[in-house]
Amino acid sequence: MRTALAVCGVASLVHLIPLFLPRNMPEQELAIARVTAEPQNRVRLLKPLKQHPKATGAELREAAALLLEGAPAEARELLEEADRREPNALETQLLRARICRVERMERCVQESFERAARLAPGDARPDLLQADMREGDGDLEGALEAVDRARKKAPDEPAVLLRYSRLLSALGRSGEAEAAIRASASKLSPQRLYLELGLLREREGRNEDARRFFAQAVGEGPQSAVAHFYLGRAHFRLGDLDSAEEELREADRLDVSNPQPLAALCAMQMKAGLSEAARVTKMDLERRFQEQAELIQDACRADP
User: Fold this and answer.
1) I need a surface site. Which of 32, 222, 294, 304 has the fewest CB within 10 A?
2) Number of C-alpha atoms within 13 angstroms, CB side, residue 64?
3) Cα diameter, the chain
4) Full pLDDT tens readout for the chain, 304 residues
5) How many whole angstroms separate alpha carbon 60 and alpha carbon 55?
6) pTM, two decimal places
């Protein structure tokens, strides 16, 4: 027993040594900050990087991004230093726009986008960030306009085309949304194409068509957990709980790290009044995904 305790003590000391060693590289502070949740602790770690001679513009931008939500003023200080060390970087202007938005400085946001446009007139990233902001405000028309600009700058980028399609769909322009998906067909795998068409039909409430597309996606990619997940949801919307459970359990088997399939199954079982089956599913979720307590509670709660 004494030997075992001694070995454990030595092992603990070995793991603690790095915390007491002098840290003189910005990457060390960033690595610690990435796993530090408390904003003020992050400030304590990262604010000194402003005077650190070895900190690069990219490292200072990452430090600023890590402080964005909890300490935007300190984030802005780090970003200004990044701009001084690495002038004319588009990434700096985009991060400045985000920081200014958190601080509700709309003029600063606009000026940041104007600088970004001057620095990289053909880059789609400023437009995509503007789309994020507009969509977050509930301005879907404004988001669509921004994504349309991005689409014209990056016509061969399928992610941009698909986002354009989803916004068209959200605005009720289903025909244009489908045309945008099919325009990107040559850049998508067949499985992804069927998934996107299925999601479009799902948003339209055309559940039978959605199920057909999701089934085609499963046929193209039988090892795709995502395809089985969406097919399971489509089965449930059409009243076929047995098939829904089969597909969701297959999705869970194919991706054991994702709690969503079993969470969806638990929610379906509760809606169907299968409280005992839901209890068993919930127990399985709690055993495997202890850190997802809120997700499990929401999925398996009884309807009011």
Assistant:
1) 304
2) 29
3) 74
4) 555 455 555 445 444 444 444 456 889 999 999 999 898 999 999 999 999 999 999 999 999 999 999 999 999 999 999 999 999 999 999 999 999 999 999 999 999 999 999 999 999 999 999 999 999 999 999 999 999 999 999 998 999 999 999 999 999 999 999 999 998 899 999 999 999 999 999 999 999 999 999 999 999 999 999 999 999 999 999 999 999 999 999 999 999 999 999 999 999 999 999 999 999 999 999 999 999 999 999 999 976 4
5) 6
6) 0.79
Fill in the DSSP letter of residue 121: T
Angle at 276 (CA atoms; ends 273, 280), nearest 5 degrees: 125
Query: What is the spatial distance between Cα 161 and Cα 187, in angstroms, rounded to a whole number?
Result: 10
Neighbours of 220 (CB within 10 A): 16
> Do 184 and 162 contact (CB within 8 A), yes or no?
yes
Query: What dihedral do alpha carbons 161, 166, 172, 177 form, nearest 10°?
Result: 30
The pair of three-digit structure tokens given for residue 2, joined into one six-digit string: 């004494």
What is the three-class DSSP state of 82?
helix
Which residues neighbour 9 within 8 Å (Cβ) at sequence distance 6 or greater? Answer: none
CA 290 to chain centre: 21
- Superfamily in which the 206-304 domain is placed by CATH: Tetratricopeptide repeat domain (1.25.40.10)
- DSSP code at position 187: G
CB burial of residue 90 (10 Å; 0-12, 13-18, 19+)? middle
Q: In terms of DSSP H, where are the helices of the chain?
A: 2-20, 26-34, 39-46, 57-67, 72-85, 90-102, 106-119, 125-136, 140-153, 158-170, 174-183, 190-204, 207-220, 225-237, 241-254, 260-271, 275-288, 293-300
Domain range annotation of the chain? 25-119, 121-151, 206-304
> What span, in angstroms and rounded, lies between the C-alpha atoms of 271 and 248?
16
